[in-house]
């Protein structure tokens, strides 16, 4: 059986990274019934950590690209939680995005759109979700973005 999510990723030229291991005393995901809670994923791309502070030399477009990297890491964690079977993913329920930004930066929603748009591109209507996009004075390792997610699964 063809996996439509894997097919769509290929069509978009996207590759999921390996599901990142936890960096401290927590687990990468927790399943409770049909709900999967995925721990915050920091912006990490093929060339390493995506660092920077929005409003201080980092453009909104670069922040959105960092958020897209977070979305791919979130999806990689979902895949790991589902033993590699993304057909069991029903929908994205909620994302909470944290943007490393200056006190006067107000475009956090535009940055987190990088993740939201990615989920909709990959999953269609199942990628539409509730969301928060908030500023953070700093994030672990100086990354630009961190996003956590809640997913409905089979």
UniProtKB/TrEMBL annotation:
Pfam families: YjgF_endoribonc
Coiled-coil region: none
InterPro entries: Endoribo_LPSP/chorism_mut-like (IPR013813), RutC-like_sf (IPR035959)
Sequence ranges assigned to domain Endoribonuclease L-PSP/chorismate mutase-like in this UniProt record: 6-142
Protein's name according to its UniProt entry: Enamine deaminase RidA, house cleaning of reactive enamine intermediates, YjgF/YER057c/UK114 family
Lineage: Bacteria, Pseudomonadati, Pseudomonadota, Alphaproteobacteria, Rhodobacterales
């Amino acid at each position: 059986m063809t996996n439509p999510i894997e097919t769509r990723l290929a069509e978009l030229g996207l590759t999921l990274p390996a599901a990142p291991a936890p960096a401290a005393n927590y687990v990468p995901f927790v399943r409770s019934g049909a709900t999967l809670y995925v721990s915050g994923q920091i912006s990490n791309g093929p060339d390493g950590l995506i660092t920077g502070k929005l409003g201080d030399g980092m453009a909104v477009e670069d922040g959105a690209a960092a958020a897209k990297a977070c979305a791919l890491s979130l999806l990689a964690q979902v895949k790991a939680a589902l033993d590699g079977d993304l057909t069991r993913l029903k929908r994205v329920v909620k994302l909470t995005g944290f943007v490393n930004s200056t006190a006067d930066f107000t475009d956090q929603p535009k940055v987190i759109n990088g993740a939201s748009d990615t989920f909709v591109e990959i999953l269609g209507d199942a990628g539409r979700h509730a969301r928060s996009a908030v500023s953070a004075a700093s994030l672990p390792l100086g990354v630009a973005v961190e996003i956590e997610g809640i997913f409905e699964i089979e």
